[in-house]
Every structure is written in C-alpha cells, then in structure tokens.
Amino acid sequence: MATDSRWSIEYGSWLFYLDDTGYSKIVRMNGMALMFAGYGKKIQEYKNWIRSNPTDFSAQPDVKGMSVCMVDEATGVVEVKEEQDIDTNNVLCAGSGARPAYGCWTSNKCSMRAVESAKLVDPCSGGEVKYVNFSTADTNVSDYLAEAHLTIETIGANIMKRGIAMKIRTTPMGTPDLPFPKAAGDAANEEQLAREHVGNLVASGALSANAPCDGMHNDWSEDSKKNFQRALGKMFGWDKQPA
Q1: What confidence score (pLDDT) does residue 188 get?
Q2: CA pair distance 43, 168, nearest whole angstrom
Q3: Whole-angstrom Cα distance, residue 47 to residue 43?
Q4: Residue 141: per-residue pLDDT
Q5: What is the C-alpha separation between 216 and 68, in angstroms, rounded?
Q6: How confident is the model at residue 182 (pLDDT cuts 50, 70, 90)?
Q7: What is the largest CA-CA distance in the chain?
Q8: Higher pLDDT, 188 or 182
Q9: Residue 177 pLDDT exceeds 70
Q10: Could you tell me if residue 90 is left (phi over 0), alpha (psi between -120 and 50 degrees) or otherwise beta?
Q11: Which of 5, 97, 140, 162 has CA atoms 20 to 30 A from the CA of 26?
Q12: What is the Cα–Cα distance from 212 to 215, expressed in whole angstroms?
C-alpha cells in the first residue's frame, strides 16, 4: 500500500498545493491500514471518529465524499475497496494519479514506484511516498495519534501561506474564475490576488484541501456501507464482544 503526500486546493484556473505536511492519507489502527482519498473534510471526519475509539456506529460519519482501501496488515486481505478509480487484476488505485500509477504497476509490480510515476505527470500527486509493506511490516507511516495536532484546516491554511500556486488552465471548468480582472498580463500580481481570494475561502471553511479522486463524487451502495461497518467492527474489536 502506498500513497503520495500532496494535498491540494483547486479553484477556477488555479491549483494550490503543498507536499510533506505530515498529514497522512493512510491511517493505521489495531492491525488495519486504511488508505483514503477524496474530500479533505470527509477524511478529517473519519480521522476524528477513529481517534475517538468509538464503541458503536451511532456517531459514524457518512461515507460519501471519499474512497477507502482497508487492508488487514497481518494477512494482507483487502477488507474494503470502495470507490476505487481502478479495480482490476487485484490492483486498486484511487486518485487523480490512478491511471499512470496503474500503468507503471503493470510493468514493475511495485506500489511505491507506481506512485513515483504518477508524481511525474499528475499535478495533484507529489511529495514523499508513504507506504505500508504487508510482507515485511516495514512502514514510514506515523502512528495515527502522532499527527492528531494536524487537521485539514491547518493543512489548508499552510497551503495558502506557503504552498505552490499553479495555473492549470486558461478557461476555468465548473467553478467561475476569480472575481477580479486580470492584472494586464502581470502574472505575479494575478497569483497574489488569487492566493488572497482563495485563502479567504479556505479560512471561512468554504474550501478545503483535498486528495482528489473520481470516487469522491459517488454514492456508496448499501452493501458497501454494510461491508465497511463489518470491517470497522473487526478493527475496533466489536466482532469479538459477547452478544
């Protein structure tokens, strides 16, 4: 299991991103590894819920807005594989870099190398590759409590403060372009105005840092939700509690 470590904010023609924030897309707990992609706020909801060590599903957040791959670290069994952008030949890929990652995997059979390949062509992929090797138990993913001081809100603020700005298109898709006239070809001034405007939206909670994937826009089936609950119950040990 491997992911990149870039978080990004897209608005209009602009992409703002930051690598190596310490805010991992992989959560490890009680012998399970969960790999998330999707809306940062939704992933934050699940990190908060998992850290609360819940005793039942009463406060479980809704699942729409994210993809999840959940693996039993001891056995390597994939317990959950929901809203993956690619699910074929026992390979699971989610995220904006899924296709180049899969292409690399078919040749090299190495998840870390696959993520490195995605970083070369996908603007939303970058930074250190975080991984869990289920065969050797080797990992560079921090304990899920060690990063508790980090939130998606702080990551978003850091992106706007010191992240990289990239103009990814000249004609915006979906979101209206920034509501001010372009500064007569002054690219540096345009970036400053964009950073200020998007920064205000992030500060107000209107925008969030994300790990974009196609599956973040989809509804989960009822069977998928039940299977996720089954796997979560196994992770929390609820399946071993006496009736």
Answers
A1: 65
A2: 25
A3: 6
A4: 94
A5: 10
A6: low
A7: 70
A8: 188
A9: no
A10: left
A11: 162
A12: 9
pTM here?
0.90
- The structure tokens listed for 134 are 């289920």
Structure tokens at 230: 């089954």
CB 40 within 8 A of CB 159: no
Q: Which tokens belong to 102?
A: 């899969």
Averaged pLDDT score across all residues of the chain = 91
Nearest of 135, 99, 133, 132 to residue 24 by alpha carbon: 132
Strands 91-93 and 86-88 come out as antiparallel
- CB of 106 closer than 8 Å to CB of 118: no
CA–CA separation, 141 vs 28, rounded Å?
8
Q: Rounded distance, CA 14 to CA 198, Å?
A: 9
Nearest to 21 by CA among 165, 243, 209: 209
Q: Which amino acid is at 199?
A: G
- Would you state the pLDDT for residue 189? 82
Picking from 65, 90, 78, 64, the residue whose alpha carbon sits closest to that of residue 34 is 78
CB burial of residue 214 (10 Å; 0-12, 13-18, 19+): middle
